[in-house]
Amino acid sequence: MKDKKIDIFGQQMFFRQLKPAAASAVTLAIGEVIDSIVVGSKLGMVGLAAMSIIMPIFMIFNVIMVGLGLGASISFSKLMASGETDKARSSYKGTVIFTLLAGVFIAAIFNIFAPQFLYVLGVKNNMSGLYFVSIGAYRMLTAGAPIIMLSFVVNYFMRNDDMEVFAGIGFSIGNISDFALSLLFVLVLDMGALGAELATVLGQFIALSIYGFFILTKSENLKLKGIKPIYSGIISDLKVGFSSSVQYILSFVFILIANNVLMNSQGIDGVGIFTIIQNISYVFDTWYDAIVQSSQPVITTFTGECNYKSREEVLSTEQFTGVISGGFIALIICIFASTVCKIFGMTNADTINLAKPAIYIYCISSLLSGYNQIIAGYEMCFREKISYISSLLRKGIILVPSLLLFSIFAGKFIWLFYLFTEILSLIIIDKFRKKIPDPSITVPEDRIFRRLIRGKDDMPGCLEGIENFCEMFGVSMKQQYFASMAVEELCSAIIDKNFSGGRGIIQLTVIADNSGDFTMYIRDNAVEKNLMSVRYTLKDAKEDEETDFNALGLNVIKQKAKDYSYRRYQGFNTTMIKI
């Protein structure tokens, strides 16, 4: 049964997630860029070199906290959508403890062998000035590993537990604090690169404290007390998230090669232009990552409900949003390209004229980059191999050879390697998407019934459709009657008791399992109320149980159903019933 507006819930859920994620993306982009500007303005090239030297340390953090945060939160969302709340909470606690232990281990090892690691990162024995500036920042950043990693991981879980607004508040305040403290420590207190990294650690500590406050006061699923941790899924979660986090390892390799290639081909000006391009890339990457993070909880929820059409609609929505918004950001940067160069300290007119074409080319390629990033984020929810391949192609296998090739033949238009990389990656990934089967599609379309109900006038047609759907699989009259009864009683109760003036929308999805069971997902946009709770049916009904037929019918459904659950998620009520 096809309804043209069957996916209206997916769009609303996506944009509800995107609002706080957008605010977080703005503050994160500022945080990514401001340290380079502040430290560079205070210490010059030595300060910028120190910031570049310790950048790989943060990439190591990202491999773990992004990989584990994404993978574990996706598993959490799927378990919650399937009604396995206890298992989801136990998995969350196990992830939190593992993250803390991993952070402590990294902090200890990297501080014990600090001189050796700095040597590997590029600070040689004859670079006493750079070593002096780098060592303090290095120790501060590595010592803060447990705080930084846990802050990011908890943020991912909050976004997958209908707490995206609170996650956005904590994240934004943390980054604003990082920005303000960086100005204080570096420009006022003259603490150099160490001050910038201290500001980063304290900013994440502030964010984590805010997360903890909201979890204690607003959440039941993310409280750690009273549940036993489960660690069995951590490896598989890391594998899922690794398809996204591997990009940080590849980015480190790319930056090292690019610096050397550009220094040899274009000198200091080429490296300076590359630094500006990298900072611009942070702006686009954080924005597209916000779009991906906003869609993943919705996509995994629909996957758990076997609502494949709705998740495809969410993908189309985020692709359109990414292209339009990304295009707007690219246009603004291109218009003010000269100003952007001056902000980063580039004052020579000839150098600015050399940098502007590079900015134009990168901004054009950023649109394809965003499209590829959105596809990779979507596929990571169920075909992580495709997401992994996308990261390998765009961050290494195609990117590095393209850089070397265009450095030889393209001259000052070497920056076309960005555009070439994204185009070729898009073509290859499209072929993989068509070739690799989707393991998440466990139920064929002919075993799924969908209907949108706007009021009681739609109920007769819906019930007739349910009966015909049941007859297709030869179920007994008893089970067919109970399926129709469950839909009629619950939907009627939603319309009568929850909708304001009887107006609202109900999304019904019924799945005929191979085992012979029927699983129903009923989502509505009414006020928050769990109609399957005993408290409602026995206490809040307008009449007593003997005469309130809605309450009587709902209690019968509870007694006869194999399983049922209720969840208020993304502003909507979602009830699952298995019969």
Short description:
With 579 residues, the chain is mostly helical.
Topology at a glance:
Layout: H1 8-43, H2 45-81, H3 85-112, H4 114-121, H5 128-143, H6 145-159, H7 164-188, H8 192-218, H9 234-304, H10 308-335, H11 337-343, H12 349-379, H13 384-397, H14 399-409, H15 416-435, E1 448-453, H16 459-471, H17 477-498, E2 506-512, E3 518-524, H18 534-540, H19 549-560, E4 563-569, E5 572-578
Antiparallel strand pairs: 1-2, 2-3, 3-5, 4-5
Helix pairs in contact: 1-2, 1-7, 1-9, 1-10, 2-3, 2-5, 2-6, 2-9, 3-5, 3-6, 5-8, 6-7, 6-8, 7-8, 9-10, 9-12, 9-13, 9-14, 10-12, 11-12, 12-13, 12-15, 13-15, 14-15, 16-17, 17-19, 18-19
Radius of gyration: 27 Å
Mean residue pLDDT: 79
Order of helices and strands: HHHHHHHHHHHHHHHEHHEEHHEE
Report the total helices: 19
The helix-and-strand class reads mainly alpha
Q: Give the low-pLDDT segments.
A: 1-5, 534-547
Sketch the major β-sheet.
5 strands, antiparallel
Secondary structure: number of strands: 5
Any idea what the shape is?
elongated
Adjacency order of strands in the biggest sheet:
1-2-3-5-4
What percentage of residues falls in helices of 4 or more residues? over 70%
- Beta content comes to 5-15%
* Total number of distinct structural domains: 3
**Oligomeric organization of the protein chains:** single chain
Distance between the termini: 21 Å
